[in-house]
Amino acid sequence: MLQESLDFLFHTFLAPKYLVKLGLVQEIIGIKYRQKRLEAAWFEHREKSKQEIINTFSKLEHKRKALIIGAGLLLDLPLKELSEQFEEVILVDIFFLQESIDEIKQYDNCRFEQVDISSALKEAYYLWQNHGKDKELFDSKLRNLLHKKPNHFLLEENLDYVVSCNLLSQLSLAFEYFAKKKKMLETDTLRAFFESFKVNHIEYLKAFPEDTTIHILTDTQKIVVNKEGKELESLPSIDHTLLKDFKEQDSWLWNLADYGELEKDYALKLKVQSSLLRPKPSHT
Q: How far is CA 47 from the centre of its chain?
C-alpha cells in the first residue's frame, strides 16, 4: 500500500493536472497493482490478447508502421514481436507510467505518444471547472462535445496496422467516476456524453485509410458468477451495434475480479472479443 501511494505521488508531478483531478493517474496505478495481485487470473487474457495481435499482423503483406492505441501498462501487448516485425511502432495512451516509458525506450524503433484519444476529456473537465455551478450552461456546452471526433494519426504515413487494445469500454469511465464524485446532475446530455466516447472511437477507427488493417480488442459483456460457478447476471459493456462493421475473429473470458476482490461471494468476468474492420484476404 505504501509503495502504491509513493508511486502515485511520484506520477502526480509528471501528469497533467486534469488527469490527476479526474482520478486517471490513480486508476492507472491501481490497475498496475491490481494486476500484480491477480496475475494468475489475468494471465490467460493477457496472453490471448498478445496472440491475437501476433496472429493478425503476421498475415499482413506490409509491416511498415503499427499504431497501438491503449498501450498503457504494456500488459497485453507483444512489444518485442511488434518491434521485430514492424519498421516503426507508435504506442499511444493518455498517460504512461515511467516504467512503461523505460521499457519502450529499450526498442529503437518504438516511440510513445501521450494523447487523449477521445479528444474530449480535458475540455469536459475544464467545462465543469468553469461552468459546473451553472447546471444549464454546463449541460448546454457539454452538448458541443457529443460529436467531437478525434483525428490523431489519421494522416500518419505508411500506417499498415492499427490496434485499439482493450480500450473501448474504458474510454468514458474516468469522467463517469468524476461526475459521480462531483454529484453532477445526470441529464440526457451527460448520459449521451458518456456513450459518445465509444461511438466516436469507432467512427475514428473507421476514418483510417481503407488499406490500413484495423483491429479492435474490447470487452463486450460483463458476467457475474457465484462460488458455484453459476452465472447470475450478464450485462452488455458496450452496445453490440458498435461492432456491426467488424468481423469477429475470436472471443474469450477474462477473469477480471476473483472472489473477494469486489465482493466476497461473487466474481466478475468479461467476455472479450477480437475483431477486424474490413478484413483483408490472408497472405501466405
A: 17
